[in-house]
């Protein structure tokens, strides 16, 4: 980030703004999904236990909505031209039970199969599949395990097979500085 902030200091005019937007991948909205809290916890447990070694710094930074992103005054050699007091951070629904993201249009109703396909496109899952080619696309695939657990938890509360739906959401943050 040091080079980014140096470049930004050169091109952003006095009084200008650097705005950094981050959005998480799709997660289960516990407030709008039957058995949502249990499903969200199960999905997070599976993904964290199976994928932790396949996350890279960029995955973690965006998943955490850039909360640990190095800023011009926190890097080893601070970059001048950015006033710390002008820094603003706004988060939408991050780590809450609310569904504020609806206003941003980041919520979506999905089947467990669609959720499986969606998380299957993430870089950590792709790296997991590269490391486990014999399990990729099978019942042992990490994304398939998530799907099956979602289906099981929906069935526990009376949802019939073939009628399983969940509400997904992406959380976001914007950190404009100017």
Automatic annotation (TrEMBL):
Q: What is this protein called?
A: Methyltransferase
Question: What species was this sequence derived from?
Answer: Fusarium oxysporum f. sp. pisi HDV247
